[in-house]
Amino acid sequence: MCIFLRNMKLLLCSLYLHSINW
Fold first, then answer.
1. What is the per-residue pLDDT for 2?
2. DSSP structural state of residue 12
3. Integer Cα distance of 19 and 13 in angstroms
4. pTM beyond 0.85, yes or no
5. 1-22 pLDDT, tens digit each
C-alpha cells in the first residue's frame, strides 16, 4: 500500500511539473 501511495505522489508531482512547463 505504501508503494502504491508513493507512486501516486510521484505521479502527481510529475503532472504538477508538466503543468508548470506548459
1. 67
2. H
3. 10
4. no
5. 568 888 899 999 999 988 887 6
**Grid cell 501511495 in the structure block, residue:** 5
Q: Look up residue 17 and give its amino acid.
A: L
Q: How many CA atoms lie within 13 A of 20 on its CB side?
A: 6
Would you give the distance in Å from CA 4 to the centre of its chain?
A: 11
Q: For position 4, what pLDDT does the model report?
A: 84
Q: Distance of CA 1 to CAs 8, 13, 15, 18, 19, Å?
A: 11, 18, 21, 26, 27
How many whole angstroms separate alpha carbon 19 and alpha carbon 1?
27
